[in-house]
Amino acid sequence: MSKNHHAEDIIARYRRGECSPEETAWVESWHLMELSKQSNAISTENLEETQHMLLQSILREKTSTPVVSRRLVKVWWAAAVLITSIFLFSVVYWNRLPVTEESTVEVMAMDISPGSKKATLTVDDGTVVELEEGADLVAVKGSAITYADGSVIGEPVADESSAVLRYNTLVTPNGGEYQIVLGDGTKVWLNAASSLRFPQRFLGHEREVELVGEAYFEVASDKSKPFKVKSKGQILEVLGTHFNVTAYGEERSVRTALLEGAVKVSSEYSKEHVVLRPGQQSIIQAGEKGITVNKADKESVLAWQKGYFLFDDADLESIMKQVERWYDVEVIYASKPTGKTFLGMVSRSRNISAVLSALEKVGNIRFKIDGKKITVFG
Q1: What is the pLDDT of residues 293-351, one digit of tens each?
Q2: How far is CA 122 from the centre of its chain?
Q3: Where are the membrane-spanning stretches (predicted)?
């Protein structure tokens, strides 16, 4: 077999998830070097357009893949590698700094694995249940909360006919994510370090939940009962729509990006409100009046929910915040971060060293992993 055919065979097997670790490393390194060479020959504007075209192509290929259970390890690995194939074109520094030949990530101990499907459920009586790690989702079904296979979690509500709202809280830790289907059919994906407080049943004339952290919602349509999401400094009101809310307690801003339908965003700081259209994003700054509305990037909004990091002109501190939550680590800066920004994508299914190595390749920075501490140099 010729060298060209051999390379094509490896790349084809890489996309199917059949490569050995050595072959995987070769494919990713080779494509990163190729992209670096190309980036030196084209303008920033053309590079951004090329990246966007590649991203659209990859996402189209990804979404054409059938959805399967993540419990099937081999099938999930193939799907994960397809996401990882985005890494072939990933992490291009906005100012096109030179790509280094090899990683200088200093690993003082064992590498750190990515987050997984894990969460706790606090039911109405205060009982805390550790949910099955790796399970697809939980669902509210009448008086019970169940796993996808129908097995009941905890004890069903004793008096389902009661007019009293009984609340449960789904909590994901750092390094965890989970999905829940609420009693009305609304689907919610909860990102790491987040919580969702919801009633066992929606009573009265509205459906209301409370969010801390980040979640993606696909709200079941019910014109007679508006769906409300309360988060830090804002209230969202919808009838049936798809949107993402980022409302972490340690961050000053609350962001709501609308993908489908319509949503009314009200600020608790100024009592102002706006109605978002699909493709728009609202930003509310803690303690400030006014609501900023700008264009939302669908790929950026859905990146975490689809299994990858997407850095679109993102600064290092915001990137490392995501790394902290997903890998459950502490990030320490040896010196004050500069204003460098990054553009690129990395799969969330990779170990932390792979993510840090990708950042090192395109920026004048270095990382040291020591247990659960990540030190940033430069």
Answers
A1: 999 988 889 999 989 898 888 899 999 999 999 999 999 999 988 788 888 788 899 99
A2: 23
A3: 75-94
Instruction: Work out whether the CA dihedral 267, 270, 276, 281 comes out positive or negative.
Output: negative
For 208, phi then psi, to 5°, come to -130, 135
pLDDT at residue 13, rounded to an integer: 66
Asked if residue 360 lies in contact with residue 374, where contact means CB atoms within 8 angstroms, the answer is: no
Q: Where are the beta strands (DSSP E) in 105-219?
A: 106-107, 116-117, 120-122, 128-130, 138-141, 144-147, 152-153, 167-172, 176-181, 187-190, 194-199, 207-218
- What whole-number distance in Å separates Cα of residue 223 and Cα of residue 237? 12
261: alpha, beta or left? (left if phi > 0; alpha if psi -120 to 50): left
CB 89 within 8 A of CB 362: no
Helices (H) and strands (E) in the chain, counts: 7, 26
Distance from C-alpha of 245 to C-alpha of 257, rounded to nearest angstrom:
7
Q: 311 forms bridges with which residues in the sheet?
A: 344
CA distance 250 to 253: 9
Longest CA pairwise span in the chain (Å): 73
| Torsion angle of the four alpha carbons 35, 36, 42, 47, in this order, in degrees rounded to the nearest 10 | 60
Query: pLDDT grade, residue 32 (50/70/90)?
Result: very low
**CATH T-level assignment (fold) for domain 3-112+300-377:** Phage tail protein beta-alpha-beta fold (3.55.50)
Would you mind telling me the total number of residues written for the chain in this entry?
A: 378
Give bridge partners of residue 243 from the DSSP assignment. Answer: 217, 258
Distance, in Å, from the CA atom of 347 to the CA atom of 199, rounded to the nearest integer, reads 34
Please provide the DSSP assignment of 266-322 as one string: EETTT--EEEE-TTEEEEEETT--S-EEEE--HHHHHHHHHTEEEEEEEEHHHHHHH
Quote the CA–CA distance of 139 and 323 in Å, as a whole number: 29
3-class state of residue 343 by DSSP: strand
Residue 355 tokens read as: 């993510």
Quick check: helix, strand or coil at residue 78? helix
Phi/psi of residue 72, each to 5°? -85, 95
Report the CATH architecture of 116-299. Sandwich (2.60)
Query: Which residues make Cβ contacts (< 8 Å) with residue 72, sequence separation at least 6?
Result: none
Q: For the chain, what are the domain ranges?
A: 3-112+300-377, 116-299
